[in-house]
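$ fold --in a.seq
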Amino acid sequence: MGQNDILFERAQKTIPGGVNSPVRAFRQVGGTPRFVSKANGPYFWDAENTRYIDLIMSWGPMIVGHAHPEVVQAVQRAAETSFSYGAPTEGEIELAERICELMPSVEQVRMVSSGTEATMSALRLARGYTGRDLIIKFEGCYHGHADSLLVKAGSGLLTFADSTQNAPSSGGVPQDLVKHTLVLPYNDVSALEEVFAKQGDQVAAVILEPIAGNMNLIRPTPEFLSAMRTLTNQHGSVLIYDEVMTGFRVALGGAQSLQGIVPDLTCLGKVMGGGMPMAAFGGKKEIMSKLAPLGNVYQAGTLSGNPVAVAAGLKTLEIVSRPGFYECLTGQTEKLMMGFKQAADKAGVPFAVDSVGGMFGLYFANEIPNSFEAVTKTDIEAFKKFFHAMLDEGVYLAPSAYEAGFTSIAHDNAVLDAIIAAAEKSFQKI
């Protein structure tokens, strides 16, 4: 029994399922999770000191590579003056100013500690601002584990537009809450138009991942985005862009800068904390002024704007703002996708790829899917085989066919060559 197995067995005694976040458990792919002992650049080492090329990068935040010396130094310097004050600091203002500068749609911003906290707070704010209860989310998009977001559509297409038929997607979520959440298919313009025609004056907010990353990488169509912005404007609903994953990851100005959409509220996380627990939500001053202490929408947190996380975030944003950063990151990710696709074609395996900035999708299908339903029809069994073959070759992919992958600026040509060589061997084994 290897060290990873020993640790996993031990972990299961005191931690439910042996993990502190479900996807780490390897449930979809089978096998034993790798317990990480250290990481540097594009690599991590497990408990058995086996080195892997990391293609999840902590699910996105390690965009400059693990343990980047400048970020480490910034964190060390901040830690020397204490880890938390529960009082304001100048660093928080600097980070807020930088976010507002990089994302013009964000006029004011409130710091929190996690993506779930950001989306949960943004929804409460949207409801408080509009005086409405109903929210719209899209099938396959994940916005954290707040109650009103853990909702799935009931069976059958008709129920997409009927929240009374929806069901919680988690135990412990009251059916009473579910009726306030509508779940629509991603990229379905007519479903969106139908709901707004019937219930537009009841919709507090529409929340979406502007490039989905939790059902693998799925891009929205321009028509879908345009309809959403137009309809929310017409009906006085708040458009919330959940850029926890895409913010500063697909481009310096986030997905909204690529799509030319100006959302009312934006949720951020991952990259803005440089890997430390840090997130934020922000947007129009008119909406943000409804937050306590100015308004009656309550939100608070002792660790919000934590000085050590702020230091990591500021330094990371400084590095990604340097000339050529995103051009290089995007180019390397595209090069990697081309390598994957050529290796699959050579092996005769039906396979498609897509990427935006430093975020990518791999699909065992003939074409890139455009909805959750399309993703479920890809060859999940082939993915499982590929995942384990790649793991054996020292490449760590997301342990689920429903998750996007991530590169970093540390994934140089030598690293890409090693990944592509591993893929060539792995596709032969499917």
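$ fold --in b.seq
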Amino acid sequence: MYKISRYNHFQERPDGKYIAYNARSGAVAIMDPDNYAAYENLARKIESAADSPFSPAEAELLKQLEYASFVYLDDYDELEELAFCHYSARYDATSLGFVLAPTMACNMACSYCYEGNKKGRMSDETMESIVDFVRRRGGHLRDLSVGWYGGEPLLAMDIIERLSERLIRLGQEQSFKYEASIITNGFLLTGETVDRLLDFGVDSIQLTLDGPARVHNGKRPLKNGRPSYERILENMAYASGKMKIGVRVNVDRSFNGEIITEMLRELDAAGLKNYLGIYFGWLEPSTTVCANIAESCLSATDFSKVEIEYFRLLLEEGFRIGKLPTPVLNFCVAQSSGGFVMDHEGNLYRCFNHVGDHDRSMGNIRDQLNYNHPNFTRLFRFDAFQDDLCRSCDILPICMGGCPSRRQDRGVTGGDMCESWRHNLPDMLEIIAQAKLQEMKSAVKEQS
């Protein structure tokens, strides 16, 4: 017999159709009223454990629902399998992930930056230690992922090149896959730099725009006080045809719909509309360095409301919706034994927000790893499957308990602990459905 998934979400649309979503598989579908009525009848039969046979139409629908994980055989425990997959990823020794800062220096002076005014470049000794660390594990690695960040990592492009070349060569020698990405403010992302990054395996970029030119240039000026926005857009125009670009917009109380619309129209005028995945970042006072912005930060509930408003604006202005409620195995690097955030000196951390605070380090790349170090266990130990609220949550597969640092370091509880999906999933599903329907209509027009 079958069971109904606890991760199913059904909601009626204004046109009378229904959105069907399963958080375990990430499957999304639009059902017409007849299909939804057939599903409800099928669900009643399953839940009542009746012996009445399924009709041919019900049997066909059941096959489709089972494929997308909306139903499953009753000898299968979906929570148990989810936990197994999570723990397998948590302790996976075949995957290694580094978030590396070749420098902590930056060319910008953002008021909310948690890193403060740091300096320093990665030494040859630290690079050698990274290569040795990977070489010792390379024999059983399946993949190595590197994310470059800083500071502004492009201030140390020579280090990125030298270290990338050695890691790529190791992958070829030891037969593991190498992939890389970069977080950059985009000001130094010239055409020449884009081509060089591609040569060294970097094929995706995350950069930040804090509104249209007049707002961004006030929030994210260069250290010499000059604006940065116009140069960033010029650089994005070249990179957009060659790399995947994600644009983060850090949202606080100073933002409104007019500001977002103005930014979107500037991006459209620059020819970037069809090349960007835009999402909205929840600006939080994560450390004492950025505590001065606390009053301007939104609560989790308030952020989830404006996030919906801004995604609707994306839809109205013809931008694609890049944020999807996708299942994850771990929330972040802090929940992985094979993931590390590293500063330019080789100090290892469990969270971006801790970088540079040596009291939060779990050791150095030169030393033997200590998985019993309190700075490792403090964030690693949280287990969503041992938490009653998380275990019973119908969106657990797309959240996995939320941010460990927010929970452990800042003592956040209740609704503020949850990701925005908890507060706005129905609205986001409707926006995603509208976006998919628009894409389908556009594809039909192009073919006709």
